[in-house]
Amino acid sequence: MAEKKTTAKSTKTAKKAVEVKSREDLQKELTAKQTEMLETRRSHRAGELVNPRAITQGRKEIARLKTAIRADELKGDK
Asked: Which residue segment(s) compose the domain that 66 sits in?
């Protein structure tokens, strides 16, 4: 008989934006990431950026922070 091959499905666990941070902490982290993003773009324009993927990662981190802040605002309104 032929043996059945078993394939293990990899389960990816998504990062959840639900953290125990206050809205003020999220705002501070957002401004820090935005400042970091400005520096990253500036170094990219100057040709000094070693890892251009940092721009994409930074944009996604900023979007996650904005989403978490907005979710907290909506949760507080109800």
From this structure: 23-77
Whether the Cβ atoms of residue 24 and residue 76 lie closer than 8 Å to each other: no
Q: Where are the beta strands (DSSP E) in the chain?
A: none
If one counts the domains in the chain, the total is 1
Q: Which long-range contacts (CB under 8 A, 24 or more apart) does 72-75 make?
A: 72/23, 72/26, 73/23
Q: Look up the pTM and report it.
A: 0.71
Q: What is the CATH number of the domain that holds 49?
A: 1.10.287
pLDDT in tens, 48-72: 999 999 999 999 999 999 999 999 9
Classified as helix, coil or strand, 48 is coil
Nearest in space to 32 (alpha carbons), one of 2, 6, 62: 62
Q: Is the pLDDT of residue 21 over 80?
A: yes
